[in-house]
Structure formats: C-alpha cells, structure tokens
Amino acid sequence: xxxxxxxxxxxxxxxxxxxxxxxxxxxxxxxxxxxxxxxxxxxxxxxxxxxxxxxxxxxxxxxxxxxxxxxxxxxxxxxxxxxxxxxxxxxxxxxxxxxxxxxxxxxxxxxxxxxxxxxxxxxxxxxxxxxxxxxxxxxxxxxxxxxxxxxxxxxxxxxxxxxxxxxxxxxxxxxxxxxxxxxxxxxxxxxxxxxxxxxxxxxxxxxxxxxxxxxxxxxxxxxxxxxxxxxxxxxxxxxxxxxxxxxxxxxxxxxxxxxxxxxxxxxxxxxxxxxxxxxxxxxxxxxxxxxxxxxxxxxxxxxxxxxxxxxxxxxx
Amino acid sequence: xxxxxxxxxxxxxxxxxxxxxxxxxxxxxxxxxxxxxxxxxxxxxxxxxxxxxxxxxxxxxxxxxxxxxxxxxxxxxxxxxxxxxxxxxxxxxxxxxxxxxxxxxxxxxxxxxxxxxxxxxxxxxxxxxxxxxxxxxxxxxxxxxxxxxxxxxxxxxxxxxxxxxxxxxxxxxxxxxxxxxxxxxxxxxxxxxxxxxxxxxxxxxxxxxxxxxxxxxxxxxxxxxxxxxxxxxxxxxxxxxxxxxxxxxxxxxxxxxxxxxxxxxxxxxxxxxxxxxxxxxxxxxxxxxxxxxxxxxxxxxxxxxxxxxxxxxxxxxxxx
Lengths: 316, 320
Ligand SMILES: Cc1ncc(C[n+]2csc(CCOP(=O)(O)OP(=O)(O)O)c2C)c(N)n1
Description:
heterodimer; A: alpha/beta; two-stranded antiparallel sheet; B: alpha/beta; 5-stranded mixed beta sheet; binds thiamine diphosphate
C-alpha cells in the first residue's frame, strides 16, 4: 500500500460507477447516441492522471470518460454533458466523445482514432517553448497504432523533445479487430524505433501504472522528451452501447471470464481495509447521486444558440 | 516602390513575427525558403520561430492545433495545394470544430498558407487544384487575395484572427506587382470585398489572379459594355452586402472561378445572389469543367481553365 492507494481506488471506483450509471441512462434514453464504456480499463486513467500535476494536460479518446474524470473534471458537469445539457462541460456541444475541460487540463476527447497524439505533441512543445513545465499525457488504443498520423507524431515528439507521455491502452481489440490481426511487429518496438523509451506494463494495476507514469512524467518534465507506455488491459463491456443491441460475436465466454478476472477495482480494493473501501464507495455513490440529480435537472440549451461558439471571432 | 504579391506575403509574415512573439512558422523547406515565401525570415527570427518540418503533414497540422491551444499562433506553409486534401481532416474536422465542440473553451488561431495554388504551368494533375470551395463549404474562413496590398493585408488579418484561416495565393497572382508605399500597407478585414473596377452594365465576380483577367476584359470592352469587377477577397465569409451594392447598379451577374463547377464557388455566388437580389438576366458562370483534373499538355491545361475569351463572350451574351 502506497500513500496514494485510497486515492487510486477512489478514482477507479468513481469511473466504474459513473460508467455503470451512464449505461443505465443510455438505456432509459436520457443519454442519446450511446457511449463507449471504459469499464475494465480504469486503472490506466487513474494511474496516469495521478502522476500528473493539476497544471499538466491530457488528450483523450472516444472512450474518454475515465480520462476526463481522473484528470479532475466535475462528475456532475460531465454527466450533464453526456445528457446534452447547457450546464455540461462543453455546454452540451460536445457530448461523450468530445468532453473537454480546459480548466483542469483536459484538451478534449477526440473521436478520430489517432488524431489527438499530434495535438498533444504540439501543445506540449508549445508550453515548453513558453517556459511552462507542462507535461501532456495522450491516451489512445491499440487500434490507433496503425494510424500513420500517430506514428508521424511519435517522430515529431522525439525529434523535438516534446514533454509528452504516450499512453497506449492495449485492450486487445479495435472494435472487433484483434490486435494480433492488425499490428505487425510489436507495439513498443514501433515507439522505440522513433528513439523514445517504451515499456509494457500491467494496465490492470493502478499502482503499477502510477509508478511507470511517474517515471515518464519526471523524464518529460526534466527535458528528457517523450516516453511510451503500453498498458495491457481488457475491455469488460461492449465496444459501444449499441453493441448490446447488435450482439457482435467476437470474444469467447472463456476469454471474457479470463479478462474480467483481473479487475482493477478488486486489485486496488484488496490493498485497503474494508472499512476504507466501504467509506469510499459510499462517498462516490453520494457524488454520483448528486451528479445525476444535477444533470437531470439541468436545462437543455436553447435552440437559438445551436451554432454558438462556432467561431472564436465573429464573422462580419 | 514596386512590391510583388509574393514579397507582400513575405512582408506580412515578417511583420507579424516581429509584432507578436506567439507567431511562429512551420513548413517544409521554409528555412531556406524553397518557395520564397519565407525568404530572410530564418536569418531574422531563428530556429524557434521558423521551423522546418519533416514530411508529416497530418501530424504537423494537428501539432499546430495543439500549439494554438497552448497559446501560440502558428502559420503553416503548404508547398502544394493538394496537400490540403491530405490534411482536410485536421483542418475541417479538428481545428475548425474545436471552438463549438468545447462550448467555446478554446480558440485555434492557425493560419494555413498555400503560395502557389491553381495551375503552375507543367505541374499537372496532382499539383494544380484550387480547393477553396471545400473549406468554404465546411465554414473555415477562406481567403484568396488578388493584389499585393490585399495579399499583405489579408494575411495579416488571417494571422491575427482567433479562428483557423486558409489563405490561397494563386500561382498566377504571385508575380503581380504594384507601385506601393510600404507605409500604406495595412490589415484588410476578412469578409469585406472591393470593387476592382467600377461599371454599370454587368458585375463580374472574380477571385485572385482572375480579378486581373476580368479587369483586362473590362478594359477591352470599355465603350461597348460597362463592366464592374467585384473581388470578394474572402470566399468565406462572403461579402453579400458588397455584391448587393454592385448588383443594385448592374442587375447582371457573371462569375469567373478557377475551380471545378459542381458544388463550387461560382454556383454558390449565383445561388446566393438570386436568393437575395433582383437580376435582369440569367446569371452565368465560367469555371473549370465538372470534376476536372488538370491535364499536363500545355494546350489542354489552358483549355480547362477559365479564359479571357470565355469571359468576353459570356459578358456580351449577358448584356445582349
Ligand atoms: C480514424 C478513425 N477510423 C475509424 C474510426 C471508427 N472507430 C471508432 S473507435 C474504433 C476502434 C478503436 O480501437 P482502439 O484504438 O484500439 O481503441 P478502443 O476502442 O479499443 O479503446 C474505430 C475503428 C474512427 N473513429 N476514427
């Protein structure tokens, strides 16, 4: 047990219950369009974000709720965003796949696979050039490893010493495409080819993720350049909530049972006294009760403003 | 003092780099200024402000977005117009959408400059497009200056704008020279057109190098037909008020546009004009053909682009 153990457990628990409740809101129709559940992968967001300072930044993915919450976004405003309310993080203009909160360093979830890595690299490089010691962590899946733009970003980050931590969440699948059928060679070897250190770690254990991420963040902050972390994980639920309806068949029951047996919630919970676990669970439930009430009571944006914020500077 | 269009762009970059240290340039071979756009700027501003990039258009276009989110004001030079097809996702789907999607939490002041769009003689199919309509269609601010003073003033405004702006500098306009006093160079607001030549019988809308062609045709017809040439300067936002003022006089419209016909700029100007204003004759457009790819052989390249002769005969038909 480390000093951070309870905090890590709390983050994992918050993400898990946020996701479970969100799935219920998808079923009840309060969330339109569905979500990509992060259930099973929470240790990565919790560990990486715990290694970051509040002024550090992240970019996220289509499966982004965990990252955004772990970086400190308000769960009430996050849930309101998923429901398209005007009180949402993005005033209801972003939704699940675009949640952003610049006030806590969330430069936005990005729905184009592989796109955010290059944005993170530019943000990190620019911060350093302006004399700030900001580190930017960027999350992406194993599927993104086949997007040329991300590989181009590895090159720029390494070449220009950008303070970036590349976090690959290898959950074994890009939608239904198994990683073995998609990635030639090895994932960390691709990163190493661009001259950055790359490590493969157990992405189910929040403390191992925190330790690896802390080393990477220190290296980036001290001018050492980017690090690549391949976090091995498993997606317990569907790729997207629509999958519950279409019943895609690409994972065996044995595989699912095996994957689900390494649950970050249990791994981290086992490190704490049961009374601590119970207290955190109750506290998280209260936070989410409040979030649900806040989101449900929040107004919908007025339709006159549908294209508000399109331009930072008004058109003539 | 004679100032060329290309030199005016170069001067705008130099002035903005000097005025605002958040401005920096990125692009391929820009330190030695392969296209001349950035001539002298590396020597003046150094490595931090004038960055040669690897051939990684998609990554460096998003990199600029990230740098903009972090408070800088990047300007990217693209060596060839078709590279914009390669980074359309990064501009149309990333940079342009950030402000709305985040509920106004951020701004993305990136400028994309293409010095040499449209036909460059002998460069053929993959180097000769003029894809400004694509950006206007998605709502990205899009500029096509015609004169050296406008090249300077519009590029300065683009760099100072807090949104992404694409600046197309047609290859055929880069060599245009005007007698200009440097002291007279000033920012030109986006979205405000100008009357390049006054007339009363028919309005020709033209962009970039075609403004000069249209003025030449108007001179040729002087005494016979009084042609007004309206240069909107920006494709998007478009200056409908300016066009309206011109059409109130002429009530006849011809658009000349060096891009493809279907879903193009010319069709948009005509549709917008007939929705808003009264015309006395059916409007006409002169464009590249539908879905054209510029062929290599010189005569074929030329025949695909709108010409003075086409414009002259269409003008005579419209006023007949
Ligand atoms: C460039 C791009 N291609 C395809 C898609 C459609 N798509 C959305 S998520 C996804 C799978 C992504 O897999 P991975 O990167 O492994 O992340 P995971 O979903 O496993 O978290 C795909 C193909 C997309 N959004 N962007």
